[in-house]
Design brief:
CATH topology of the largest domain: Rossmann fold
Radius of gyration: 24 Å
Distance between the termini: 67 Å
Number of strands: 14
Number of domains: 3
Strand content: 5-15%
CATH class of the largest domain: Alpha Beta
Oligomer: single chain
Structural class: alpha/beta
Bound molecules: 1,4-dihydronicotinamide adenine dinucleotide, uridine-5'-diphosphate-glucuronic acid
Largest sheet: 6 strands, parallel
Number of helices: 20
CATH architecture of the largest domain: 3-Layer(aba) Sandwich
Helix content: 40-55%
């Protein structure tokens, strides 16, 4: 089939490459000329394992362009995968979706299906369908399908090739037939429903995962108070098949481009309809507080951060991606800088993106050792394998005071104890806590 994909971001680019891999001819369109030029040279503008190789491998069936008219004119299916960022009030900014819809309506010259892969509020597909039918330039039949995406960054290629399900929100058997032609080569299970239900499946899934994380973080905080261990608790809970082990990792909260915005968007949608989603509001509140949990812990050890040498390991919102959107590290770094700390950071792929926000206010280090050398304290915000595998004795050897605040529970407590560091993590016992009181008293700034 001839497929056009609007948007060459995390979703659009991965989708385009995977569709080409499965034998379709794909034109991937973006308004960002720099992205398109990089892709035309076989280079990926984002860090996503396996993506660049897949793009190069399929270059005969996969092209990149800014010429949307040429890409859409004769396409069988056009997939919209543009961004849907959040507004200040939590609602969804659909500007890019509407722009893509206008471009489609102006250019399509034969019957086609428009599949909306961007995450959009329930009802958007219906509105788009009405609008495109009214404003299309040529007298062609354009059907709109809701086709939400469930990939995770860092594993996006695999998640797409081996997705748990393909959700199709269709309003006609014809639209379903066309979409099945797109996805049949993937041999994955389908959920076929109406457009609004498909749009709701996306939000309900993301928000459920966010709830699960906030719940385990809430329990982790209680574990600290009652002297229980969240790792054991999560293991014991996860073995119940009704609960499952995934998304029970306690930490400093969820970040990324989707959970924060999608939780707020669903609450906004509900309140517009006069309904309050209390569970989701609570999950958002827990997450907001959780983000700065380590900062609060650190204060109890060292008072304030003025003049302190702080090391920050891990900047991206999760490992396996260079994406720093809503990364908990950013909120923490902002506090440290505001209170006058000198901050040295390390991340294997996220530093260029962080430079665009904090510029010269941070010291960017090539190695973990360089970041922690002579530091008064160290924060861990992303569980990169390099951090997990880092020799714990090095903290004691290189830092001025080996005070480590781990927001991702990277190390086991026994190893931390043996390495002689003061180690605070999430929902677990402190290691070396007794000595810590001394730190504030022997303050030598
Ligand atoms: N990032 C993720 O892991 C997932 C994202 N989603 C949803 O997918 C959508 C896209 O997200 P991302 O790929 O992360 O966004 P992104 O920001 O990485 O990419 C969006 C791309 O669309 C381009 N664009 C904007 N207007 C355009 C137009 N008129 N024509 C062509 N291209 C245009 C932008 O230049 C940008 O390259 C969002 O609705 C998001 O909520 C869904 C599942 C996973
Ligand atoms: O709509 C989206 O954009 C996507 O959002 C998430 O994917 P993603 O944001 O890439 O990453 P996740 O692995 O879900 O992690 C999100 C955040 O939750 C945190 N997390 C995750 C799992 C966990 O147990 N604990 C935890 O704190 C991660 O550190 C990260 O900050 C969903 O997992 C995808 O299914 C969905 O398609």
């Amino acid at each position: 089939m001839d497929i056009a994909v609007a948007g060459a971001g995390y979703v659009g680019l991965v989708t385009a490459a995977c569709l080409a891999e499965k034998g379709h001819r794909v034109a991937c369109v973006d308004v960002d000329i720099e992205k398109v030029m990089l892709l035309q040279r076989g280079m990926s503008p984002i860090y996503e394992p396996g993506l660049e190789e897949l793009v190069r491998k399929n270059r005969e069936r996969l092209r990149f362009t800014t010429d949307y008219a040429a890409a859409y004119r004769r396409a069988d299916v056009i997939i919209i995968a543009v961004g849907t960022p959040e507004e200040r009030d939590g609602s969804v900014n659909l500007r890019y979706v509407w722009e893509a819809a206008k471009q489609i309506a102006r250019t399509v010259e034969k019957d086609c299906v428009v599949a909306v892969k961007s995450t959009v509020p329930v009802g958007t597909g219906d509105e788009l369908a009405r609008w495109i039918a009214e404003y299309r330039k040529h007298p062609v039949h354009i059907e709109v399908v809701a086709n939400p995406e469930f990939l995770s960054q860092g594993t996006a290629v695999n998640d797409t090739l081996y997705a748990s399900r393909i959700v199709l929100g269709v309003e006609s058997p014809h639209a379903e037939k066309v979409m099945r032609e797109v996805y049949d080569p993937f041999a994955l299970p389908y959920v076929v429903t109406d457009r609004k239900s498909a749009e709701m499946i996306k939000y309900a899934s993301n928000v459920f995962l966010a709830l699960k994380i906030s719940y385990i973080n809430d329990i982790a905080n209680l574990c600290e108070i009652v002297d229980a261990d969240i790792e054991a608790v999560a293991e014991g809970m996860g073995m119940d098949p009704r609960i499952g082990p995934r998304f029970l990792r306690a930490g400093i909260g969820y970040g990324g481009s989707c959970f924060p915005k999608d939780t707020k968007a669903l609450c906004h949608l509900a309140s517009r309809c006069g309904y309050e989603l209390k569970t989701v509001r609570a999950a958002i509140d827990v997450n907001e507080k959780q983000k700065l949990k380590l900062i609060e812990k650190a204060r109890t050890y060292i008072g304030d951060f003025h003049g302190r040498e702080a090391a920050v390991l891990g900047l991206t919102f999760k490992p396996g991606t260079d994406d720093i959107r809503e990364a908990p590290a950013l909120a923490n770094i902002a506090v440290l800088l505001e209170e006058g700390a000198n901050v040295k950071v390390w991340d294997p792929v996220g530093m260029d993106n962080v430079k665009r926000i904090f510029a010269e206010n941070l010291t960017y280090c090539a190695t973990i050792e360089e970041a922690i050398a002579n530091a008064d304290l160290c924060f861990i915000f992303t569980e990169w394998p390099e951090i997990r595998q880092f020799d714990l004795c090095q903290y004691a050897a290189l830092m001025k005071t080996p005070l480590v605040f781990d927001g991702r529970n990277c190390y086991d407590l026994e190893s931390a104890r043996k390495a002689g560091i003061l180690y605070e993590s999430i929902g677990r016992k402190q290691v070396g806590a007794a000595e810590s009181a001394v730190l504030v008293e022997t303050d030598e700034r």
